[in-house]
Write a structure and sequence with these properties.
InterPro entries: FAD-dep_OxRdtase, FAD/NAD-bd_sf, MTOX. This protein has a domain at 1-19 and 26-34 and 135-152. The protein is built from five helices and four strands, in the order H-E-H-E-H-E-H-E-H. It has helices spanning 2-11, 45-65, 84-95, 105-111, 135-148; strands spanning 36-38, 70-80, 101-104, 122-133.
């Protein structure tokens, strides 16, 4: 979050100082390592809005740097059909015009070539707004872009 914020503030012409508790690209936080997933299925509406907006911001940063760190995929959540999380996520997707499909256990089995055999009473929720982020590479990208914008 810090490196991304530094990039955005520098990009908008603000004088920016990026401070880090450890070395840059350290392994001590949640934004390091090979990958992180991104999804649109949250029970809180504001997360859905953030995901939709962030997709555009990822694309802008990638276009500026010239390489990809965010790879869009479909996303599958699974759980009991009466799961409060899944029901809230389905409702939030509907309210925010995120196209989610609810699949019963046999549809999950069929759509995913038998990879998932859900227990009785479970469902799957598939949305196209998922993805994988190359975490360390993304942080490095934002730090580089911050410097290139002349302020970080």
């Amino acid at each position: 979050m810090g490196s991304s914020t530094a990039y955005q503030t520098a990009r908008h012409g603000l004088k920016t100082l990026l401070l880090e508790q450890f070395d840059f690209l350290h392994p001590c936080g949640s934004s390091h390592g090979e990958s992180r997933t991104i999804r649109a299925t949250y029970k809180k509406d504001y997360y859905c809005n953030m995901i939709l907006e962030s997709s555009h911001l990822w694309e802008e940063a990638e276009a500026e740097i010239g390489y990809k760190v965010y790879f869009k995929t479909s996303h599958l959540d699974m759980g009991p059909s009466d799961s409060k999380f899944l029901q809230a996520a389905i409702g939030s997707c509907q309210k925010n015009s995120i196209s989610g499909r609810v699949l019963d256990r046999s549809e999950v089995f069929e759509e995913f070539s038998g990879k998932f055999q859900l227990p009785e009473g479970w469902i799957g929720v598939v949305t196209p707004q998922g993805g994988v982020i190359k975490a360390t590479k993304a942080v490095a990208m934002f730090q580089t872009l911050g410097v290139q914008n002349g302020r970080a």
